[in-house]
Specification:
Blueprint lengths: L1 E7 L2 E10 L4 H12 L4 E12 L1 H17 L3 E6 L1 H9 L10
Parallel strand pairs: 2-3, 3-4
Antiparallel strand pairs: 1-2
Helix pairs in contact: 1-2
């Protein structure tokens, strides 16, 4: 997994590439938490993610909860087909802030 963060004024975009799994999901969790706790709006781009497991999905749910708690805007702006299928199977596409 590779993570690139772009800061643009009042919001940040986290772009993720590759696989999100148990071996690296904590890295994503830390990046999401840091950005959400900075007070900036956050966009998460998952268009280039080839695989996501339950630990990665947990990061998305946790980020959504943190954004609500902090009253910070958070959105997932793009999904790869593999991520979209996983979220749809878990019915999380209905509750996560996917744009």
């Amino acid at each position: 997994m590779e993570i690139k963060i772009n800061n643009d004024g009042d919001f940040s975009t986290i772009n993720v590439f590759g696989e999100i799994d148990l071996n690296n999901s904590n890295e994503l969790r830390i990046k999401l938490n840091d950005e959400l706790n900075s007070g900036k709006s956050l966009k998460l781009n998952l268009a280039e993610v080839t695989y996501i497991d339950s630990s990665g999905v947990s990061c998305l749910v946790e980020a959504t909860q943190i954004s609500k708690k902090n009253n910070t805007e958070f959105s997932i702006i793009a999904l790869s087909e593999s991520v979209k299928k996983v979220l749809e199977l878990a019915y999380l596409d209905k509750i996560l802030p996917i744009k």
